[in-house]
Amino acid sequence: MAFRWYVVHVYSGFEKKVAQAVREKAAQKGLEDKFEDILVPTEEVVEIRRGAKVNAERKFFPGYVLVKMELTDDTWHLVKNTPKVTGFLGGGGKPHPITQREAERIIHQVQEGIERPKPSIIFEVGEQVRVCDGPFTSFNGSVEEVDEERSRLKVAVSIFGRSTPVELEYGQVEKV
Question: Which of 31, 53, 125, 175 meets the CB 3.0–4.6 Å disulfide criterion with 26?
């Protein structure tokens, strides 16, 4: 039999604990050769906490773990009987593997998220924001342009009664 990717449904928030538990149980029972990979798809995001940029992790599929394994009765029972696992994705009690193309797309998304952390806040043109850092602190303005690649905004702020475009980083503004 070949190794295939299966999607395991778990309690949300316990994805990493389940992945670790499956690895440990496989090692205890001598089945680690039946498991090729266990993946919790996540990406790096940049969040603003208390005015500071912080790198954090966001799960692509909360409540799911991807397991690349050889499906046998032993491996199925090992995964199914792991605490916090509710079951496999697939109908009729029989797990259905995802296609190799789907698995590669997910792995590519994970790689991209690690290489280029994304901001967790998304701004839209026309949205009202307040400047919370820099020389224009406490000014309100409206977003004119969004540059997601560079995590920058062009915001029109009113200075002495005139609308003036100012370029700011995501971390320098907050939504109103």
Answer: 31
**Residue pointed to by tokens 């193309």:** 101
Both tokens assigned to 154: 């062009």
Measured CA to CA, the distance from residue 31 to residue 78 in angstroms comes to 9
* Residue 103 contacts residue 5 (beta carbons within 8 Å): yes
**73: phi then psi, degrees, rounded to nearest 5:** -60, -40
Q: Please state, in angstroms and rounded to a whole number, the distance separating the CA atoms of residues 158 and 165.
A: 9
What does each C-alpha distance from 111 to 49, 76, 106, 149 come to in angstroms? 25, 28, 9, 17
Pairwise CA distance, residues 22 & 25, whole Å = 5
Among residues 172, 92, 85, the alpha carbon closest in space to that of 135 is found at 172
- Residue 94 token pair: 């029989």
Question: pTM (2 decimals)?
Answer: 0.66
CA 155 vs CA 76, 97, 123, 176: distances in Å: 54, 48, 11, 13
Q: Is residue 56 over pLDDT 90?
A: no
Beta bridge partners of 161: none
Encode pLDDT of 94-117 as tens digits.
788 998 899 888 888 888 766 666
For 118, residues 6+ apart whose C-beta sits below 8 A from its C-beta are: 43, 44, 45, 46
